[in-house]
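Worked example 2:
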Amino acid sequence: MSIKSILCAYSGDPSKGSGLRYAVQLAKSHDAHLTGVAKTGGIGFLHRQLPAHLPKQVIEQLDANGRKIMDDIKARFLDVVGAQGLTDRAEFVELDPKTSGPIAAFARAFDLVVIGHHVGAVYEDDYATNPDLIALRSGRPVLIVPQRHEVSETAATNVLVAWDGKRAATCAIAAAMPILEQGANVTLLSVSQTPRNTDRLVKNLSMHGVMAKAVTVAQAGSIADTILAYSRSEAVNLIVMGAFEHSKFSHDIVGGAATDVLKEAHVPVLLAH
């Protein structure tokens, strides 16, 4: 399936706006419609987390502050897409969880979700805290862009697929196909052992015009450490991987490779479940 509708979870991007800029680049590259979204009641409406007996005038002032923050975020979004000539196929939505549901439910109406990952941002909200859970709950691929990432005007050219032969990784490859088919060199990276039928996957990708090679490396440190070390040594500019395969309970307790990769990734990561 091609990428024709992109949802950008946008909180103002306090550093370099890498998430929005990457979403803009994808929208231009795929001739897609771009929707920016921020959650009402989540950014700046701080009294929701404070005691209920606050004076009315204090609540009104906090709401006014929240309204201004939301207006500034919307204006920033529209300025960025306007400067890139996307005004006619871009919009900004203030997501009300009471009517449209959480971000994961809203995301089901789009082909791809793009999130800027800004560690420690004041108005980060919950979009970037658990993007792998958004991938799980929405059923849509989520592309996470690290803070301060320098976004290129060209499509990803050197892509690493974390390939373990499992369902989630297979779904991630399928979700990334519109990007891979734009001429990327693809490495199917396996850790410790090569999954069965990998050679057939390489052949199938070639039928789609995707040049791919399979590489298996010894594990050095954690699986995430191994993936990240390879990505740096080979100048990878996009990592594609499956979100966690185990239960959410296990994920909450011990985490997973995808979560660990996101903590240290220097390039965008596309997740699917």
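The chain has two domains: 5-146, 158-272. The beta strands are 5-9, 33-39, 90-95, 112-117, 142-146, 158-162, 185-191, 211-217, 238-242, 269-272.
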